[in-house]
C-alpha cells in the first residue's frame, strides 16, 4: 500500500484520537512534520512519575512505665474478681468427705450470696437454702473461712437422734452424709443434750444451747443458720461452736479446679488406697506414672453440689 501523506491539520487530530499507531514506550515518538509547518516537533514520550516518599514506620517502645501500667491493670482486675466475684480456696481437713476431699482447690462464687443492697435487682443474688454448701466466717474467728453444709434455717426446730437429723419433726434426707468409724459420742448422737460430755464444745455455746432448746428441739433464731459437715463423726461444726449469722456467709463453691492427692486420716478405705498408691509410686520409675499419681485428675472441673 502506498504511503498517503497526512496533512498537518489532520495529524494533530489523529494523534489526539489515537488514530496513528505509536512506537513502543521505550522509544519516544516525535512528530516529524515538515519544518515549513511553522511549529516545533512534538514529542509523545511518556512522562516519568515521581516516586512516592518513603513512609516511616514507628514501632512502639515498651519501657518500664508501660510494663508497670500493664501490671497494675492486671492486679486491679484480679483484685476486683477475688473481692467481688470469685475466690480460690483449698480444703485442709476431712470434715466434708466424700463431697470435698483434702487437697481439693475450689473456686468460690462470692456474688451469689453477697448482700444485695441497691444492686439486688441487677445482680443475681440468691438466698441461703437448706442442703447447699457455703463458705462462711465461724463465730470463734471471723477472719477464718470454713466450708460446711446448711442444715438449719432461721425458725427451724432441729434435733439429732442416733445420727439422723430431724427438722421440724421430719427426718431430713441426706444422701451426702457420711458416717466413718469412730468412738461413740453421746453428744453427737443425741443432740441437743443436757449433759456436757464433749470437752470440744465451746462453753459459751453450751450456755446458749440450753437457752435455745425447747422440748428436745434446738430452735434456730432469726437471722442464724446451723451448719454441719458431711463427715458427721469427724466434723467440728455448729454442734460445737453454734450458729452462723447471715452476714458471715460469704460465698458458695462452684467447681473444683484442681485436686492434689492427699491421704485421709478418717476414711479407712481411702487411707489404705493412698498407702498402696504411695508404695506403687515408690517402686515405679516411670515419670508418667508419678505424674498421674500427683493429682486427682478426674476431680478437676468437678461441679460442687
What descriptors fit this protein?
alpha+beta, eight-stranded antiparallel β-sheet, six-stranded antiparallel β-sheet, 7 helices, elongated
What does this structure look like?
The strands form two sheets. Strands 1, 2, 3, 4, 11, 12, 13 and 14 form an eight-stranded antiparallel β-sheet that branches. Strands 5, 6, 7, 8, 9 and 10 form a six-stranded antiparallel β-sheet that branches. The protein is elongated and about 110 Å long. Strand 5 and strand 6 (164-167) form a beta hairpin. It contains seven helices and 14 strands. It has one domain: Umud Fragment, subunit A (Ribbon), CATH 2.10.109. The model is unreliable at 1-37 (pLDDT under 50). It starts with 7 loop residues before the first helix and ends with a strand. The chain has 305 residues and is α+β, with helices and mostly antiparallel strands. The protein has helices at residues 8-16, 64-85, 186-189, 203-211, 238-241, 268-283, 287-292; strands spanning 86-90, 104-109, 133-136, 146-152, 157-161, 164-167, 170-171, 190-191, 213-214, 217-219, 224-228, 244-245, 249-259, 302-303. Helices cover 23% and strands 20% of the residues.
